[in-house]
Specification:
single chain
Amino acid sequence: MYLLIKLLHVVAVVAFLGNIATGLFWHVHAARTRDPRLLAHTMDGIIRSDRLFTIPGVIVIVTTGVFGAISGGFPLLRTGWIAWTLVLFAISGLIFMFRVVPLQRQLRALAQAGMAGGFDYADYHRMARRWEIWGAAALLAPVAGLVLMVLKPAL
C-alpha cells in the first residue's frame, strides 16, 4: 500500500509542478505577440488549468503525503525534511492565493479590455512581470520541497 500511495504522490507532484511551469512558459510565449486576444485566451487557459490541475494536485499531494508518511512510519513534524517541505508547500500556497491568482485575474481583465482597442501593453507587461516573479516563487518553493523529499537530509 505504501508504494501505491508514494506513486500517486509522485504523479501528483509532477502534474502540479508541470502545470505551474507550463503556465509561466505559455504566458511568456503569448506575451511576445503583444496581442490582447491571445493574452486573454492564454490567461483564461492558465486560470482553468489551475482549477483542473493545480488545486486538485494540492489535495492529492497533501493527502498522499500525509498517508504515505503515516504508513511509512515517518512522524510528520519530527522528520525535518517532511516538516520543511510542508512549510515550503504552505508558502507556495500563500503566494499562489494572495499574489498569483489576483494578478492572473487582473492580467486577463486588462487583456480583455484591450481587445476593444487601446491596449496598453506597457501597463500589461509591468503587471505580467510581477505575476512571473510571484509565479516563479510559487514554483521554486515546492521545487525546493521536492529536493528535500528526494535527498532526505538530516534536518
